[in-house]
Amino acid sequence: MTDIKSKSQGIDPNVSARDVKELSATTGNIYEVLSIISKRAKQLSFDLKRELNQKLEEFAVSTDSIEEINENKEQIEISKFYEKLPNPVVIATTEYLEDELHYHYNDKRRRD
Fold it and tell me: Which SS3 state, helix, strand or coil, does residue 74 take?
């Protein structure tokens, strides 16, 4: 899998209307498509959150006093970068439409 951040740089962060027939063309069922996209969005959200927390932990300073709050420009820039990334659902939908998502059924009862 390529880097999520670099892949999402070219994606429009705004939510846009999608053609339901186009989305469900491969599976034949819009609910299956939404399930696939939502599961991928959860994965992306978890990965991005974990990565952000790891980067911000580098700047963590343990102090006993609340009065001593230091602002770090690098920490602020990292946070702003992650805030500007598209929503994980938008990224997952784009991946699905560009045939970058690979999914399979655990159940043998799938429709062929």
Answer: helix
Residues 56, 82: contact at Cβ < 8 Å? no
Q: In the chain, how many domains are there?
A: 1
Kindly report the length of the chain.
112
Q: Is residue 29 part of a domain?
A: yes
The whole domain housing 31 covers 18-60+70-97
> Structure pTM?
0.73
In a domain, 51, yes or no: yes
Dihedral angle of Cα 72, 75, 79, 84, to the nearest 10 degrees: 90
pLDDT tens, 72-107? 788 888 888 888 888 888 889 988 988 888 887 777
Ramachandran angles phi, psi of 90, nearest 5°: -65, -40
Token digits of residue 58: 């580098």
